[in-house]
Amino acid sequence: MKRIKFALPGLLLLCYIDTKAQQKDSAKTLKEIIVTGYKAVNGVGHLLESEDGVVYAGKKTEVIVVDSLDANKAINNTRQILGRIPGLNIVETESNGFTANGIATRGLNPTQSIEMNTRQNGYNISADVFGYNEAYYLPPMEAVKRIELVRGAASLQFGPQFGGLVNYILEDASMNKKFEFRTAQTAGSFGMFNSFNSVGGHFSKFSYYGFIQNRNMEGERPNSRQWQLSGFGKIKYAVSEKSDISFEYSLLRNKIQMPGGLSDSLFNANPKASTRSRNWLKSPWNVLNNTINFHPGINTRISLKTTYIFSDRSLVWRNEDGGPSAPDDIDPATGQYVPREVEKEDVKSIATELRFSQDYNKARYTLAAGIRISYSKFNRLEGGEGTTGSDFDLSVTGPWEKNMQFTTTNIAPLAENIFHIGDKFTITPGARFEFLKSTANGYVDEDDNKILSDKTKTRGFFLGGVGMEYKFKPNNGFYANISRVYKPVDYSQQQPFGVAARIDDHLKDPFGFNSDLGYRNIIKNFLNIDVSAFYLDYNNRIGEVLKTDPATGEQYAFRTNVAKSVHKGLETYFEFDILKLQDPHSSKGLSVFNSFAWIDAKYTSGEFKGNRVEAAAREIERAGIIFSNKHLSATFQFNYTGDSYGDASNVKDSRNPAAGYIPAYTVLDLSATYRINNYSIKAGINNLSDESYFTRRTDEYPGPGIIPATGRSFYVGFSAKF
Hints:
Layout: E1 2-6, E2 13-21, E3 31-36, E4 44-45, E5 50-51, E6 54-55, E7 61-65, H1 78-81, E8 89-91, E9 102-104, E10 117-120, E11 123-124, E12 144-150, H2 155-158, E13 165-170, E14 180-188, E15 192-203, E16 206-217, E17 226-238, E18 243-258, H3 264-269, E19 279-282, E20 285-297, E21 300-317, E22 341-360, E23 365-385, E24 402-421, E25 425-446, E26 449-473, E27 476-486, H4 491-494, E28 502-503, E29 511-523, E30 527-548, E31 555-577, H5 578-582, E32 589-603, E33 619-628, E34 632-641, E35 644-645, E36 661-662, E37 665-676, E38 679-686, E39 694-698, E40 705-708, E41 713-721
Parallel strand pairs: 10-13, 28-31
Antiparallel strand pairs: 1-2, 2-3, 4-7, 5-6, 7-12, 8-9, 10-11, 12-13, 14-15, 14-41, 15-16, 16-17, 17-18, 18-19, 18-20, 19-21, 20-21, 21-22, 22-23, 23-24, 24-25, 25-26, 26-27, 27-29, 29-30, 30-31, 31-32, 32-33, 33-34, 34-37, 35-36, 37-38, 38-41, 39-40
């Protein structure tokens, strides 16, 4: 019997999944999955000690059961879907030029989730976790069953980054139907219409699942149109009782118009203004995966995942010259706009992960070991002179200013072991070794002067750590962990910049450690508490300093390791169900929840010693109330994010579009779902008070400048299952 227990806020979900092999007919043998327990409306939980060959014992983990949430899933409203994760910082830019909202924890950089290890069904979906870790593709939330998060201690099982792991587990085939069809149609403000349709089922030894999502949006601001098509297909074959093989394919196609960034004065005058009408982006994404699972014995599990990503990102835009206040007008002398700039990036990567786990000594100990082997190739073309038009045209009329090729080879063996000492205490030591080989080749052309680059760098990292748990009861106890973590030098940091600019030949990869000490407790099905303190040490932050050439006396920018930052704080989650306290078997629920984080993230060395880390809000609080009965569920959520700064200088006003103050903001959301049998109607209001705010400043696309968040919006939808 395989038991999965979720700690649910206010409505405890105890799912017992019985996997039984019915040997009625060898040609028709399938695993029957029976799920019993509570159907949660507000599903938040934590992972088991180990699952699918991965060790989670002693780590701070969270699970979000997406189907149980009242949220605007049509636009992947991260604030509602992941908002109850304490301390989660969210960049709300998906409707203003980015393909997805980025996330981060503990005061790290949330842009495109660059500090997170982003996965789908256990495999990486970002372009290159080592050199280009931006998440351009995320699955639509209608297709996601649950979301798993593991804080920085995830480095031992998954490698970089500092922020830990976020893993989107997709829906799967219905195991009791040959064919099942689901549809969800949602319309909303600013011309939004989202259509999601999926099919799945099983017959004989085969099972299948797939979906298509199509979304169109005019956008709140002028020149912010979006079109997106997402798709997924999976077929699985049960080779025997002990093994199966599956193939998956994910795709993303899109075209996004970017309305440009705003200066502070423009934002204060009209946060819905647009400064650009000719900026466009597309990022077609393709992910292929093959997974083989083998269970030679009841205590032994082997998994082999191979993933191939072939994707690109292209944009044409009126670039950042002059900042957000620079007009993009027709030149009276020529009768045309100035030529736009074209950029193209192409990535191909392949990774194989082999995992093995073994329960031994009467299943009191668990060994989880494995190895990851990957190779990625990234081509970047920048500074091509584009057309003077306004449509999506990637034509180039001259040579590229930058033409760079990067490769990364990675080999990483790993092992962790759970030791049960007595009935209540576990200790889990682990280790991982990372071998990296990186190359950078190409040129940068500045004023007809080509700067050539041809570099190879090989290095290795040993990551060690240990986790501990003391449980008074299965869902009541203390946990603690400490583990080493690192973040490889990415491609942009290896790239030459400017005629007089130079890169440190001894540039070091940032490294540090993550640690947690926490307590979590679930009392029956009416109370959930998780309180923890964390300490994150971030060494070798990469930046630029000015130096003087002794031969010429001229100053030049020098990219090197410039600083260290320390992030420490408190993360708490509390939920209490009033009605379940009175009657644990009640079909109704009335929960109140509070997710709070206090984060102190500061530089402790370098030029900006004592300053706050950029984008690191001190307080993040989300609280709400959830009502549910047999048919209706409704959630009201309060969201507060404290102030922060756009860069490490902590200046409030600057001509640099990326620098400046990011004020605190409060946003209110209200969503509801009404269900009858296999049908449901959903509706909601996001940003109920129509707060004008922003979460990011940028010196590049989709800006430069302030990228406003979306104002008040409405949505209504219908879904059905047949």
